[in-house]
Amino acid sequence: MEPFKVSYRGLPPYVYHLPTGSVGLDIDLVRILAQKLKMNLEMFEFDSWIDIDPQTGALGGSVGLVMNGTYDMVVGNLPFPVGVIKKSTNLTTFIYDLDIKMTTAKPRPLTPLLNVIRPFSPTIWMTSFGTIIFCGMVFALKSRSHKIRSQVILWWMLGVLLSQSRSSKGLRRAKVHLIMVVWMFFTFCLKHFYECNFRANLIAVDYEPTIDSIPDLVKLGRRLYIPSGTQFQDMLDGYPDPNFKFLGQMARQEGLMFNYDEQGLVEYEAEQIILKNGDGFLLNEYMGLATFGNLEDRYDGHNPYRISKNVIFPSMGYFLTRANFPHLMDLDCLILSLYESGIPNHLRKSYISPKYLVPSQDQVVHMEPFHLEQVFAPFFMLSTGLIVSSIVFAWQRYTLELE
Q1: Residue 246 pLDDT more than 90?
Q2: Which one of 109-113, 144-148, 210-214, 296-300 scores highest in mean pLDDT?
Q3: Is 378 inside any structural domain?
Q4: What is the distance of C-alpha 397 from the center of its chain?
Q5: Domain span at residue 224?
Q6: pLDDT at 232
Q7: Cα–Cα dist 95/2, whole Å
Q8: Are 212 and 104 within one domain?
Q9: Do 220 and 164 share a structural domain?
Q10: How sure is the predictor about 358, in pLDDT bands with cuts at 50, 70 and 90?
């Protein structure tokens, strides 16, 4: 029988190493193809895609040996073929969809200290403090000519804000009572708006924004890591969105590249930096889902990462054959038959744990603060009433009698 020499790089779910031999999505497909082609399958594993001998310039690696015609075909998580690779190899028809997605750390809880200020939006905070400061300054300026002690007014206002009864027993006049009613109603609403939303923020944990796209990553000031030996860098540079170009330039300048270990995971040192900084990295969805179980082993049963819902680069899985491979047409026909029969999809499910076939939805609870437009009418009436009553209070000439 004619030999069918296939090289591969062992990364899950395409290749798994067992004591009895290698298995995996691509390995099983190649065995089916060799059987249908009635050829003797010979498989060779390599640790890299392309190696170049510095002395002779000879090509090595799983892809390099197909480029120079030593082997017939290469499988196993192939890099995107461009340039010189395309010129010296042939692409088979696509075998399975292989979307490129982004993996980032799961949203982390926000700092609990922020719960103190989060119940109100910045607009309400500024309006509230501005109103209080304005009224306090008016009272203080008028107290000089109308014998109103500033300490009495300020302590009275503070007492009302703290939901105390009349902190000044001398406030007995009718006009003063009217001002007290307006002021207490204003602070009553303000305090209870804050208290209700504050309790909600303490009960329901708020998380960082979920990162599902390249613009999300740029907006948060995070970086994007790229697998070494792939053409994702060129894909980022050629994308029309300026956010893609920005992250591509950053990756090139800072050398944001990583390699895979034998389990198909990002090498530990690079992965720790990515997790610590909340950065993201690109990988195909099949490989990400297949290696999530290994990540749980690394983190004692907890997986700190999630796969984005949005596709970063749509792509397809395929095999590379050497130039002038005589059985390419027959190979394409067989691959098309396998695809239409659903065999690649069936194999995919057998090598990826069912709980990882669909990325789990993160429980992200966003507690939104009260915004001015939500309480604009009552807030405007209260603020206006307070300011007007404060002006009347300062304008009228009377003194407070203290008991």
Answers
A1: yes
A2: 210-214
A3: yes
A4: 62
A5: 100-108+207-312
A6: 82
A7: 24
A8: yes
A9: no
A10: very low
Which pLDDT does position 242 carry in this prediction? 92
4-13, 96-105, 165-174: range with lowest mean pLDDT: 165-174
For residues 291 and 307, the answer to whether their CB atoms sit within 8 Å is no
Q: Which two tokens stand for residue 116?
A: 């103190």
CATH of the domain at 301: 3.40.190.10
DSSP 305: E
Residue 169, burial from CB neighbour count under 10 angstroms (0-12, 13-18, 19+): exposed
- Give the Cα-Cα-Cα angle 311, 312, 315 (nearest 5 degrees): 75
**Dist. CA 273–CA 112, nearest whole Å:** 24
Q: Which residue has the higher pLDDT, 352 or 324?
A: 324
Q: How many helices (H) and strands (E) does the chain have?
A: 15, 16
Pairwise CA distance, residues 320 & 62, whole Å: 10
Q: Is the dihedral of CA 135, 141, 144, 145 positive or negative?
A: negative
Helix (H, G, I), strand (E, B) or coil at 319: coil
Which residue, of 312, 347, 381, is where some domain finishes?
312
d(CA 131, CA 229): 61
Q: What is the CA radius of gyration of the chain?
A: 34
- Paired with 5 in beta bridges are 42
5 versus 402: which is more confidently predicted?
Answer: 5
Closest CA to 117 of 370, 344, 363, 393: 370
Residues 174 and 125 both lie in one domain: yes
Single-letter amino acid code for the residue at 326:
P
| Measured distance CA(237)–CA(245) in Å, rounded | 5
Helix (H) or strand (E) holding 320: strand 320-322
Q: Can you list the pairs that 123-129 forms with residues at least 24 positions away whose Cβ atoms lie under 8 Å? A: 123/371, 123/372, 124/369, 124/370, 124/371, 124/372, 124/375, 124/379, 127/372, 127/379, 127/383, 128/190
Alpha-carbon distance of 208 to 364, in angstroms, equals 8
Q: Tell whether the model's pLDDT for residue 400 goes beyond 70.
A: no
Q: Is the distance from CB of 100 to CB of 283 less than 8 angstroms? A: yes
* SS3 state of residue 293: helix
Predicted confidence band of residue 224 (pLDDT cuts 50, 70, 90): very high
Clarify whether residues 293 and 211 are in a common domain. Answer: yes
DSSP notation for 266-278:
BPHHHHHHHHHHT
Is there a single domain that holds both residue 141 and residue 283?
Answer: no
Q: Are 139 and 390 in contact (CB under 8 A)?
A: yes
CB 132 within 8 A of CB 138: no
